[in-house]
Amino acid sequence: MEKGYPTSVVVFGRGQSAQTVALPGAQGARMLGCRGLADIGSWLRVGKALRQENADVLFVINQAPTIMTLPFRWSLRGKVVGIFHTTVPRPGEGPRTALFRIAARFLDRLVYVSVNQRDYWRARGLASARDEAIVNGIDLDHFAPRPADRAATRSAWGVQPDDFVMGLVATMRPEKNHAQLIDALVALRQRGAPAKVVFVGNGPDRERLTRGVEAAGMTPHVVFTGEQGDVRPSIAGFDVGVLCSTSIETLSLSALEILAGGVPLVLSDIGGASEIVQDGVNGYLFEVGRTDQLIDRLARVAQPEERARLAGATRRTAAAFSVDRMLASYIALVDDLVAPKR
User: Fold this and answer.
1) 138 vs 155: CA distance, rounded Å
2) Disulfide-capable partner of 100 in 19, 63, 88, 223 (CB 3.0 to 4.6 Å)?
3) Cross-strand pairs, 240
């Protein structure tokens, strides 16, 4: 919109978080309240909305919206671009993925948000008229380090200056695998490390995760902040950012925000994690599900000298993920799709 392109936002699902609604461009979004692929009313609402919007270029995000657009594809005058954010699907999503494979063949362009993700799906035969990778980006200036927030944030959490704070920013869903970080916390504290965990976010797994923390005897060492409208003060309080995801994760925006905030990362090696983390340079990777490797990587970062070395490379390596670069790529894509063909 700021670049001179008239835009509108149509939300397929049944709700948005307050944080999403507050984002630039999200005001006035049209809410369709779709209940899923099995609900015929949802398909009818999608068709009506698409005809009324009559867009020159329609971006559909992820599998269900792409699938639900397919029956109306030939009644639309504009081009249709799918943006795909998933690498490894959740267990049980085989039927949806099969339908997405069919729908993708009728897209004018399929956009991946990670090079690793593109290569993963190309190797598995996902095809479209044309595909490309436009890697996720963030506002690097907005997420620049905020050292002035560190002491106040950690004091509010009740952690000490010398505590080793491991932060995880994610919706609490099974695929985010928060519980693995609790297992690592137990092991690190048994080794004598002054380790703490801070979970930023909420979600359906919150209650189960809380019970797991209590059962492990880690309640005094874990902070649940809930969903935060501004995560920057939390990032300032971290010593390391962690993601333990087992599926879905492709190129995490929260990981990019933490990196831009000057904090090293320890990520499960899924999707585009190895595009963000240069192993041993700005953080470490560990094999999905390998708690022993997670503990080992965190034990390294718990050493102040090693942590300072890794932190020194964060801003330099984050520079590749600017929102300006990402926007320029999407604008070039739109211009290519709407330009008159000779």
Assistant:
1) 28
2) 63
3) 166
The yes-or-no answer to whether 10-137+322-338 and 147-320 have a common fold is yes
CA distance 98 to 105: 12
Q: Long-range CB contacts (< 8 A, 24+ apart) of 328-337?
A: 329/134, 330/134, 331/3, 331/5, 333/81, 333/109, 333/111, 333/132, 333/134, 334/5, 334/57, 337/57, 337/79, 337/81, 337/108, 337/109
Give the bridge partners for 268, in sequence order.
286
Angle at 18 between CA 14 and CA 24, to 5 degrees: 100
DSSP class per residue in 243-301: E---SS-SS-HHHHHHHHTT--EEEES-TTHHHH--BTTTEEEE-TT-HHHHHHHHHHH
| pTM for the whole structure | 0.91
Residues 6+ apart with CB under 8 A from 312: none
The two tokens of residue 97 are 């993925």
* Topology of domain 10-137+322-338, CATH: Rossmann fold (3.40.50)
How do the domains of the chain map onto residue ranges?
10-137+322-338, 147-320
Distance CA 239, CA 27 (A): 35
Q: CB–CB of 126/82 below 8 Å?
A: no
Question: Pairing mode, if any, of strands 164-169 and 195-200?
Answer: parallel
CATH architecture of residue range(s) 147-320: 3-Layer(aba) Sandwich (3.40)
Q: Report the alpha-carbon distance of residue 108 to residue 230 in Å, rounded.
A: 36
